[in-house]
Amino acid sequence: MEGTIGGRTPSSMPGLDIAEQRAWQHFLDAALRLYGTLNRELSDVHGLTLNDVRMLDALASSPNGSARMGDLAEELMSLPSRVTRQIHRLERQNLVRRCSTPEDGRGVLATITDEGRALLRQAMSTYGDGVRNHFLSRLSRPQTAAMGENCRRIGVALKANDAPARVGRV
């Protein structure tokens, strides 16, 4: 059948049928709106972006409150230059400090400060409330479980696809 994808009506996005494109657009729109809403709430209340909260949480969750800058960039799926700028900004706010790594002196280690931990505790409360109000309250428990499992499956596959690209990176 000409003009169909396996018997389905094609969309304006090549390779996707109408239902697939609609599902993708709804997901993308919701994810971006949710990100923007949480980011705005955290910024208004605590002066931190959602990325700042994720960074501080990554540091606070590490065994000694520290992480190498490159490891942070990888964990946060961010560019090293963006992480460097973010750490500089958080350092000016006395939320993190930087130092050379003790092992080789060439790497840079970011460490969360006591002030960073205190602000993170407050911000995590706002963040949790926002996730509950804007995301979880819109879904039933089974829908939440299905969403979590579907996103986990997608994330695992994407991470597996990304792994070969990291081989040989310093």
Automatic annotation (TrEMBL):
It comes from Mycolicibacterium madagascariense. PROSITE patterns: HTH_MARR_2. GO terms for biological process: response to stress. This is MarR family transcriptional regulator. It holds the Pfam family MarR_2. Transmembrane segments: none annotated. InterPro entries: HTH_MarR-typ, MarR/SlyA-like, WH-like_DNA-bd_sf, WH_DNA-bd_sf. PANTHER family: MARR FAMILY REGULATORY PROTEIN (PTHR33164:SF99), TRANSCRIPTIONAL REGULATOR, MARR FAMILY (PTHR33164). GO terms for molecular function: DNA-binding transcription factor activity. Residues 20-156 form the HTH marR-type domain.
